[in-house]
Design a protein that fits this description.
elongated
Length: 68
């Protein structure tokens, strides 16, 4: 009888934890994360004219090591 009660309590706790975790993930995917009063990123890019900026080429020097 005691084992059955422990098993039931553990199963209930596991079910409650899984439901809470799944609910929090669903909420995060359905609602965009942004602070109050902050404009969306696309709107900020359009306002700043990012698409009108010239493209700059640069040389990747990340793997260049000095000679001993």
């Amino acid at each position: 009888m005691t084992r059955l009660m422990i098993f039931t309590f553990a199963a209930f706790a596991l079910f409650a934890a899984a439901t809470t975790i799944l609910r929090s993930h669903t909420y995060a995917t359905n609602h965009p994360i942004a602070s109050a009063g902050m404009a969306p990123l696309k709107e900020l890019h359009n306002a700043a004219g990012v698409n009108k900026l010239p493209t700059q080429d640069f040389e990747d020097m990340s793997l260049v090591y000095p000679r001993p």
